[in-house]
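cron nightly-structures :: item 1 of 1
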Amino acid sequence: MPDRFDLPAGFRWGVATAAYQIEGAVDEDGRGPSVWDTFCARPGAVRDGHTGAVACDHYHRYPEDIALMKDLGLDGYRFSIAWPRVLPTGSGRVNPAGLAFYDRLIDALLEAGITPLPTLFHWDLPQALEDNGGWLNRDTAYRFAEYAAVMADRLGDRIPAWITLNEPFVHTVFGYALGTHAPGRTLMFEALPAAHHQLLAHGLAASVLHERGLEVMLSNNLTPVRPATPSPEDAAAARAYDALHNRLFTDPVLLGRYPDLSALGVPDDIYGAIHPGDTDLIHAPGLDGLGINFYNPTRVAAPTDPGLPFDLVDIPDVPHTAFGWPVVPDALRQLLVSLKELYGKALPPITITENGCSVEESTTPDQPRIDFLAGHLDALAAAVAEGVDVRGYYTWSLIDNFEWAEGYHQRFGLVHVDFETQKRTPKASYDWYRDLIAAHRVRSSR
């Protein structure tokens, strides 16, 4: 196939996964319980009572999954490390068997010519830390830095770049504000100390990683925010939502300050969570790259409930994924260009660390996923043409997996997984992505 996307030579192609969504083996080799183990055991918390206890059995089948990656011709693989597999109680005693698994995984990736890109935290907090308050407890940030040091000392000789956190916005809102994800708390805006403590954890861990000569990234789910109408009320609601979803997690890291959250009714000290010097700890280490997970734009209207600062409303007249998310590929270009305009020289090189869609299993031959990926890569190439420095693209996901509160009902994979037999079957999008990567390499070598 022709390479239709004008992306620079050296552009990195990858796929992404997360530990709790694929590894399984939750009771093996000394792994401690995580908040997701606990949440999945709660009646009604996860659709149909599904759990990640087995997931895709990647813990045992990783050689097969790496063979699929090698066949794709990938440059990189973004995965997450299960904190409770390495430090079963979140701190203190290190689990040698857990570290040994990641040793095996990384050596196998390198042997296949694939660069590992690990994420230290993708939502599976050790339950012992949650029992002490989780991300509402400032001490968790310091335990995270301790964990980062353990991983860097063991694996840093083979892994040049690390992602600290995945989607602190989603984890804060779904896990601590709305309760639809683990740990299932329903604190609304009083959940925001969990956001600050995650950012503090990022800053502390970034210093640990930089001290060891390693590069540091942070990945968040970002979305361009559109007012539902041109009215001043809708515009104000959109600004409030943008501050919460986007700027709360980029301004402190890139600019060393929090955005104005007064429209949300949030005090400047985020309910006492911010201590003197915290923003320096978050900002000072700097970022070597910004990871962006992109799925859809957000349309916002003035609130109908006077107790809320905004309403989220659907985007009409566009396709939607099986998850019900609107498909607007050019919104990715808009997001990337707006970040360049907003942050200027403070914006580090960008990597798209997640982008993909859920497609109904009965859909043949996977054309909606191919159209989704192609449209977003077109938008990415357009942003690059407008001067945005984007270095790589990691699609979500390599394989169908445990999709959090949806259990096994949403399929994002390039590879189909039969969760009864664990048989892997590449989809049409897998072949399309493999051919795209090969064509880009041919063009880049000319």
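cron nightly-structures :: done
DSSP finds 14 helices and 13 strands in the chain.
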